[in-house]
Amino acid sequence: MDVLSNLMSGFVTCLTPYNLWMSVLGAFLGTMVGILPGLGPSATMAIILPITFGMNPTPAMIMLTSLYYGAMYGGSTTSILVNVPGEASSVVTAMEGYQLARRGKAGAALGLAAIGSFVAGIIGTFALAFTASTLAEFSLKFGPSELFCLVLLGMFTIIYVGGKGITKSLMSMVIGLGLGCVGTDIVEGQNRFTYGIAELLDGVDFVILVMGTFGIAEVLESAEEFMKIEPMKVKFRDLFPKLAEVWSVRWAILRGTLVGFGICCIPGSGPTISSFLSYGVEKTVSKHPEKFGTGVMEGVAGPESANNAAVCGAMVPMFSLGIPGSGATAVLLGGLILYGLKPGPLLFVENADFVWAVIASMFIGNIVLIVMNLPLVPLFASLLRIPYSLIYPAILIVCIVGAYAVASGLFEVGLMLAFAICGYFMKKADIPAAPMLMALIMGPMLERNLYQALNLAHGNVLVFVQRPISATLLSILVLTSIFVAVKRARGGRTVQETEE
Amino acid sequence: MRKADRIFGIIGLGLSFWCYLESTKFHYMTRFTPGPGFLPFWVGVALAILSCYLIYDTFRRTPSKQDNKKILPEKHALVRVGGILLLLFCVRFSMPILGFPLTLAVFTTAVLFVLERYSLVKSLGYGIAYATATWFIFEYILAMGFPKGLLGI
Q1: Which of A14, A315, A352, B144 is the most exposed place for a label (fewest CB within 10 A)?
Q2: pLDDT band at A492; cut points 50, 70, 90
Q3: One-letter-per-residue 3-state SS of B106-130
Q4: pTM summary value
């Protein structure tokens, strides 16, 4: 009942005209980002973040969260109409959605994707409200040693679940930890890696890193080859699927919601993995798995529900433990720090109004999105006709403005460009940038908690195995690492045997 | 990808050595807790191990399709990417001279005219429009206070 009354007070806060406007703005921007290939939600949120510095944290976070799930809604439009996923999480939707569109069912596919996303968003937000508050209550028992183990576990889970090569992901994470060392250290107040540069005393700002490695690097990669996109035309009256079609995919939507939310509560999994898993589940439970790939409604509804529920799932560890579940939630977490809030279990105690307003706004945002997405799809699709050569200079300008706004200096602009070059080559070498970003945010937390835990224990390192919660967390980390190492060794042998 | 992995491995080794050198400037431990040199030291060690493994793996593994993939794009694409980066660096250094709106107008015009082969008139038009819109939103409405150039704008 507590959760429901908190939600009600959250609604009171988020239903003010200004907060509602922020929700609509975020949803609109998110849908555009989802539709236009070449810029993901993480980069867009990072670009917008410095502009929100002057705002109150509640409307700022309402806008950023609605942008995040708005991108999930929008991603399906390009997947279905042009077979070009606007987001990585919409790749699966393209497989079935585009086939449906070719058979003249583009409207039904778009409608089902929107309805699936809406249902998943609403159920996912309810689940987020209950799970995050319960988890936060439990994690109030955590001291520095537990938090150290939790951050460590979170960082490694991101690597193990992330999907890319483990060695490269680990390297990216270690580089991120190194970047986190830049600035004044917390133990003796010494300046590390600063070389007399005053701008580096506060460390490397994560916004600069995100805009460089995600924003500009993504633009550079997209600028290599421009696609000529000709979206299919959809009439307004075709956008609403028949009731029988919606009823036929009801279980797919519910399964997608369950898979998306459940998987994304684990840090590192993200909407992309959950949409692929949901597609796999749908194919497995289907009576006609051979039809998958030819345009099956369940293949659109399931993954689209999964990637929207995944957004809510990824916010569970972010709100309750202060651990980002994905690149996008890492940006949101960084945003919380920039707004002067303390992410972690205490957020639900010290800033309860803020958290519940943001969670309540997700219900509003989902309603805004379904209203916006169903009738406005033809309008959004027409955005695809704008040549990318006109879009990318605008994105670059906003990145420059964003970098400048971080500290009102041109040093940050230069640093962002340096990160952009690194990010571009990292993309070329298939090295994920997300672990670096997460380590940059979580590295200082890790160091601070290690320092505090050992200080309280008078230097006794056994404190991490003597306390039950930290010992459990460490055991999970060790067991997971062994499992991953064994799996990797076996996988390598199997590949070799197959090749022989 | 093998070549890329080897290059990245060597860069990683360089970075690890840098971290190690930096860590030697500070205390590794204080009385009870790790000192400022602790984390850079272990970052260096971990990076060195991972870099060596990455390089070793390129010699050990059987070449896959991914390994034969070209890392860098075609020449024309590379020129475009290089051009964008060069223009971005020009923005960084010309902003204190030209001022915020003029720099952005020149940047957009240059991108569209030189790299995207738009006509000069169209490029100028877009350049002025983008710069005016950006100035209006960020300077006029949000009062972000951008650097002024020699012309006072």
Answers
A1: A352
A2: low
A3: HHHHHHHHHHCCCCHHHHHHHHHHH
A4: 0.82
